[in-house]
Design brief:
Chain A is mainly β and 202 residues long. Chain A is 14% helix and 35% strand. Chain B has two domains: 103 residues, Carboxypeptidase-like, regulatory domain (Immunoglobulin-like), CATH 2.60.40; 577 residues, Maltoporin, Chain A (Beta Barrel). Classes of the chains: A mainly beta (202), B mainly beta (804).
Chain lengths: 202, 804
């Protein structure tokens, strides 16, 4: 019995030592964080004109500080714009892999779709208030491998009369295995949901 | 004693002829087994220890043995509800004898002994699931199994994740002892269930006061003690085999066990055991719950040596599970949550499948235990070493190929060393002193491509305790003190994905005082006052991020309110959580009545909880966010369990659990506190029907009331709309809140029946049970799935057990 006790203590000691030594006290490796979107840039480009650029920046990712939007979207009345959307992961430096999330979304276009919502009467085309309310129209200018719209490039014609203080919402949905002609803005998971304010037509 | 009980299951009716007999072994012994009033007891078992065999009395309570030798034999006579009688009889000639049994005094009988340790003090308030009661719920998870006890509930995430709750507290505030070892896993998440296969348990004891200081800090709500059967010490090969089928989830469970001794090695015993489970999607009353399948593969092996004064044992177990989380509960933003709450049936509801996709959890747990004890006179020395390896990985719906890699992954190593010394001064006075040491190391599993939710950490803990027990004719008394020290070192990543390091240590004292007043043979009053503390969990200090299927961001206590920078613990006003729990229990067991009534008050000072602090916006939308904050909380409640025998075989039973929990500093309610519960059951038992034995049938009605003591309701739309108008509905007053109202109360009916058949040297048990008999649609307040889907519909389970 004494032997057994001795054996037991010895075993405990050995395993303790082994595991203590096996424990690494080095700094853990930081993870790559490819999914985070910290900045969204909307670029409204009129034919032959200078683009109107507005961005929304998240200063601290999961932190509690609010999103910052750098100013109003000021568009000219009766003008057609091409809207391109850029998605950026600020945990990476410009030029690094992972910095540009836009490309990733485009590559996986068959499981992503952008939806838009805006105040009534802001655009003459598309009319209505957008497709976040499920039924409206958006002029998509890009498509995925299945011919379904993505929404990274869209076309907009502003109303003929001035209007101020409107809102403009961009919603990116991840719809793995379900994206189809019947899926809408309520399907899938939200990757991006930002309301820009104000949108002025002068 | 337990192991003989176990063996007795395997005995036949006819006289068991012993193996080899010398020529003069031709004596017989006959007689009757009677109760205290002289009535015969049919179906009583008689066991001869030396021969390791026995018989069962016939319908007139008669028995007979033949082929006995002229020597002394120890007879053990057992009958349900009676004290086991042990009698040594010296046979010189064939003889006749009557054995008279006395009704058992359950007040003292339930105290479970394992490995020469007395697990429960006579001054504890506790409930026990005996091997018989466990048999009737075999196949269920640990948390679900424990729900049968008054005062014990669970925080649930879907149909497969049950986290035990004792008197309203859970996770880090209760302790689970698995085969003598303090269970250490990733207990910080509400959706993290204990990693234990209940098939290894021979009995489960839940101590509901804070008095179990022998087992360490953290036992603020109580202790769950899971004990396997003692290893066999004879050479006989024994075993059991379970087969269980469930209609809901089209689930199957297979479990087997083999045990025996070693030839020529007196005192050695071994056991191997394994369980496999597979379930597809569960079903609510009206629809399939997509992606709620799960599977489990567990095994264990043990070997040991036991004799009168010493023993040692080695035990190894492996637990491995994959659990699907309801697909429709996978959300990424508050808008998603709002949609998911509205949808009925949930989004992505598809046809039944066994496939388990994202989101899901994969959890493994390994336990190695070595222990030894030796007795010298009145001294008993115990030493125990444990190694646990816990691996948890959680898979989420992520972009592209990322969904194939876990979004969360941790590996936790824990080593424990326990040494104690028990001194039995005399029959009425004993003492136990001991120490516990623990070393723990938690590391993220690299490659998750997410900012880790909690940091890596290393813990060193040590504790010393002293427990004194005294008994008089009328009183049992005990008191104990304990001192603990813990040093923690963490290294993690902040919101910018930049490294931080921190160290801190805590030490504190726990104490307990308990007394039982034995009013008479059949009733006793127990009171127990315990003060205990716990060091904070790293999740409470450093959490950063969003939990699976919860549209809320969580921040640890040490993250700065404004900048989210990680602060030093010295710089925040942190105090360790300290509980003071007082439990009073009255037990009476008289005639046809068996009653157990207890009332408790548990004050937890510096109670750490997730307090809603405001609304923030990031690129995925508007989120409420919560910070771990401290307050004082109170849990006041009472439990009642009563059985009354209407007739000899028919008993009516009732269980009631009442609880009120509140944040007393803020004068607010806490969330996810179990509602009041009431249960009524009618049970019929018959020991013998023809050649069948142990028949029982039971009807149960369980009513769970609506939780009216719940925080205010703030619908998501209101939060978002107000935020757009520039108002922060949550941050305004920081009162607790819930997105939706607590679900309505519900009543469920259940039916159970079982019968056994003994064959020559083996026994077959059949069991049928139906849960949610009426296929009621309901939602349970403490099930996190309630936001998205109904709870489980009807389940019919059939179980078969073969033992030899």
């Amino acid at each position: 019995m004494k032997k057994a006790l001795k054996l037991l203590s010895l075993l405990s000691l050995i395993s303790l030592i082994t595991i203590f030594n096996g424990c690494k006290d080095d700094d853990p490796e930081p993870e790559n964080i490819p999914e985070l979107i910290t900045k969204v840039v909307l670029r409204f480009t009129p034919v032959g004109g200078t683009p109107v650029v507005v961005s929304a920046t998240d200063p601290d990712g999961e932190g509690s500080q609010n999103l910052q939007i750098d100013g109003p979207i000021n568009l000219s009345k009766g003008t057609t714009y091409t809207l391109t959307i850029e998605l950026i992961n600020g945990l990476y430096n410009e030029g690094e892999d992972g910095y540009d999330v836009t490309e990733e979304v485009r590559e996986e276009g068959d499981e992503h779709q952008l939806f838009f919502g805006w105040s009534n009467e802001v655009f003459s085309s598309p009319t209505g208030t957008g497709n976040i309310s499920r039924t409206g129209i958006v002029n998509y200018q890009d498509e995925d491998d299945n011919g379904r719209p993505i929404g990274l490039t869209t076309s907009w014609t502003t109303a003929a009369s001035s209007t101020t203080g409107n809102s403009f919402t961009v919603l990116l949905k991840h719809q793995p295995n379900i994206k189809s002609s019947s899926t809408t803005s309520i399907d899938g998971e939200t990757d991006l949901d930002i309301t820009f304010f104000p949108l002025n037509i002068n | 004693m337990k192991k003989y009980l176990f063996l007795l299951h395997f005995l036949g009716y006819s006289v068991v002829a012993p193996g080899q007999q010398p020529d003069n072994c031709n004596l017989s012994l006959r007689g009757q087994v009677l109760d205290e009033s002289g009535k015969s007891l049919p179906g009583a078992t008689l066991f001869i220890r030396e021969l390791k065999s026995g018989v069962v009395t016939d319908e007139n309570g008669n028995f007979s043995f033949s082929g006995l030798c002229p020597q002394s034999y120890v007879f053990e006579i057992q009958f349900l509800g009676f004290e086991t009688l042990e009698k040594k009889i010296r046979l010189t000639k064939s003889d006749a004898i009557n054995f008279q049994l006395t009704p058992e005094n359950k007040l003292l009988q339930e105290v479970v002994v394992s490995d020469h340790h007395q697990i429960v003090n006579k001054t504890n308030t506790f409930s026990t699931l005996t091997s018989g009661a466990l048999e009737e719920v075999k196949g269920k998870s640990l948390g679900e199994t424990l729900q049968g006890l008054t005062g014990v509930n669970s925080i649930q995430t879907g149909p497969a994740i049950f986290k035990p709750v004792i008197h309203g507290v859970h996770s880090q505030r209760i302790l689970i002892l698995n085969n003598g070892i303090r269970q250490e896993g990733q207990q910080w998440g509400a959706e993290h269930a204990p990693e234990i296969d209940p098939f290894i348990a021979n009995n489960i004891v839940v101590i509901k006061d804070a008095g179990a200081i022998k087992y360490g800090t953290d036992a603020m709500g109580g202790v769950i003690i899971i004990t396997p059967a003692d290893l066999p010490t004879d050479q006989k090969l024994g075993g059991e085999f379970h087969l269980i089928g469930n209609s809901n989830g089209r689930a199957g469970t297979v479990s087997g066990l083999l045990e025996g001794g070693l030839k020529n090695l007196e005192g050695w015993g071994w056991r191997i055991q394994g369980t496999g489970k597979k379930s597809g999607d569960s079903q609510a009353a009206d629809y399939n719950l997509s992606n709620t399948g799960f599977q489990e593969l567990n095994y264990s092996a043990s070997a040991g040596y036991h004799e009168e004064t010493k023993g040692m044992e080695i035990f190894y177990s492996h637990f491995n599970t994959t659990i699907g989380i309801l697909r429709g509960s996978a959300i990424n933003s508050t808008e998603d949550l709002s949609n998911a709450i509205e949808m009925e049936p949930p989004q992505y509801t598809e046809d039944f499948t066994y496939a388990i996709n994202q989101p899901r959890q994969e959890v493994k747990h390994d336990l190695l235990k070595l222990n030894a004890h030796t007795r010298k006179g009145n001294n008993l020395f115990n030493i125990q070493y444990g190694l646990q390896i816990n691996k948890r990985q959680e898979y989420d719906l992520r972009r592209g190929t990322l969904k194939e890699i876990p979004a969360l992954g941790y590996l936790l190593y824990t080593q424990t060393l326990d040494v104690d010394w028990e001194i039995t001064k005399n029959e009425n006075h004993s003492r136990c002193v001991g120490m516990n040491g623990m070393w723990q190391d938690n590391n993220k599993i690299d490659g998750t491509q997410t900012i880790p939710f909690i940091p890596n950490f290393t813990n060193y803990s040590a504790g010393l305790y002293w427990v004194e027990k005294l008994a008089t004719k009328k009183w049992d008394l005990d008191f104990g003190v304990r001192y603990d020290f813990r040093y923690t070192s963490v290294v993690g990543f902040d919101f910018r994905n930049e490294l931080y390091r921190s160290q801190f240590s805590f030490n504190n004292v726990s104490g307990t005082l308990g007394a039982t007043y034995k009013m008479n043979q059949s009733s006793a009053f127990t009171t127990n006052l315990g003060s205990t503390w716990r060091p904070p969990n790293v999740a409470e200090l450093y959490s950063l991020g969003t939990h699976q299927s919860a549209a809320a961001i969580e921040y640890g206590l040490l993250l700065d309110e404004l900048t989210n920078e990680v602060l030093d613990i010295e710089d925040v006003n942190f105090k360790t959580e300290q509980a003071l729990k007082w439990v009073n229990t009255y037990r009476i067991q008289k005639g046809k009545m068996n009653l157990d009534l207890s009332g408790y008050i548990n004050y937890i000072f510096n109670y750490i909880y997730l307090k809603p602090r405001g609304v923030t916006q990031n690129t995925r939308g508007v989120f409420p966010y919560f910070r771990y904050t401290q307050t004082d909380a109170s849990f006041v409640g009472s439990d009642l369990s009563v059985q009354y025998a209407l007739f000899k075989a028919l008993a009516i039973g009732s269980k009631v659990s009442l609880l009120r929990a509140a944040d007393i500093t803020q004068n607010d309610y806490l969330i996810f506190i179990p509602a009041n519960r009431y249960e009524v059951s009618l049970r019929y038992e018959k020991n013998k029907i023809g050649s069948w034995v142990n028949f029982y049938t039971e009807v149960k009605a369980k009513y769970s009331a609506t939780q009216t003591r719940a925080p205010r309701i703030v619908p998501i739309e209101d939060i978002i709309n107000a935020y757009e108008q520039g108002t922060d509905l949550i941050g305004e007053d920081s009162q607790n809140f819930d997105f939706i109202a607590p679900p309505n109360g519900y009543m469920l009916l259940a039916f159970n029946a079982g019968i056994s058949k003994t064959l020559n040297n083996s026994k077959i048990d059949f069991r049928l049970s139906v849960d949610n008999l009426t296929n009621t649609s309901y939602r349970e307040y403490t099930n996190r799935m309630r936001y998205y889907a109904d709870d489980l519909g009807r389940n019919v389970a059939f179980a078969l057990k073969y033992s030899f």
